[in-house]
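Figure 2 data, in text form.
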Amino acid sequence: METSAFFNKRLSEKDSRPFRPSMNLTETMMPASLPLKIMIVEDSPTDARLLVRSLRNGLATPFEFDLVDNLADAVTRLTQTALSGAGRIGLVITDLNLPDSSGLATFQTLNKHAGEIPIVISSGQDGVELALESVRQGAQDYVVKGASTPETLGRIVRFAIERSRRLEAERERDLATRELEIAHSIQHSLYPSGRFDVPGCDIAGAAFSAAKACGDYYDFLPIPENRYGIAVGDVCGHGLPAALMMLQVRTCLRLLAKQGASSAAVITGVNEAVLHDDPNQRRFTSLFFARLDPANRELEFASGGHRGYLLKSDGSTQNLDSTVTLVGVLPDIGVPKVTIIQLQPGDIFFVPTDGFHEAANSDRELFGEARMLATIHECRTEPAARIIQHLHSQTRGFTGPVTQQDDMAAIVLKVV
């Protein structure tokens, strides 16, 4: 093997030549403060010298390079860089024939240790099949020694890095999508089942998220004294941040409700918990909580900024309005007013989030509260679960091709 002072001098050299407009390359490949670091794996000092010269003439941005003349040292360098995180290599340019490896095996070994680092092959072998197979196995490009100009090499390096960055961004996007799908699955499992067995009642709930994660909340759970807790909430915004707050609200509400707290105590307790964890009041939620006594057909409720409805058997509607402000806005919301209503056979207790009546079509016309309540009245003879599904279908039919902008959730309770 040829030896030269070229390999004995320092392995890293910096080139900070100014931008050359004739190259038609931008400065976007690497910030000026972070020069691109290239590892050149080449055992011929002459070929390495020519490659560095071409890079100097063809690259428009500053770069540093390390020279390595065998595969083993290249693998060691890649491993050290990955472990330390310092001096991260941004590109590998390698010959396929080295003292300790030859052919595609050289690339395969480097690729195994390079991770996300793009690899460009610079080889004396001018073979279409070899080039295609190299790229198929993951090489960013294949350059035949002496057959490319500095401008071409600079362009290849730039495209290799940009292509690698794009693929890495796509992988990160896919990973984020999978993580959101997992979060959605976990969150969905925390909702109660769609139907509940309550004497004298038909009750169902559902949530329809605008994103992978949902900020709207509904719940139904047994509580002391043979009663049942019913909750519906709407965290401001949607997506993962709103979903995380929804989980916080759910945890606190369930803890208080299972201890037998009154409707008012549940609202104030959740308010205190939310403000304790988020003193800057960056997020808040509306929250409706009711305690159902099926034996006496009584419903006791309190509400923080959230409206419910009682659709009576005679066709009239009673608004069940908020009794205090939104949860998570003020440290002291006072003692929420507790209202007790007597349920009658044929009554429908309905608590939606505003995603239904605030849904808008392409003309920016809202579905509206009147349409929402009319839809419930129209299908009041259907089972509770069917009523919710019909309402959602009618809402989406009204908005047409407009993407759902807000989460939707509701609970329907029919006295049978």
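Caption note: The chain has a mean pLDDT of 84.
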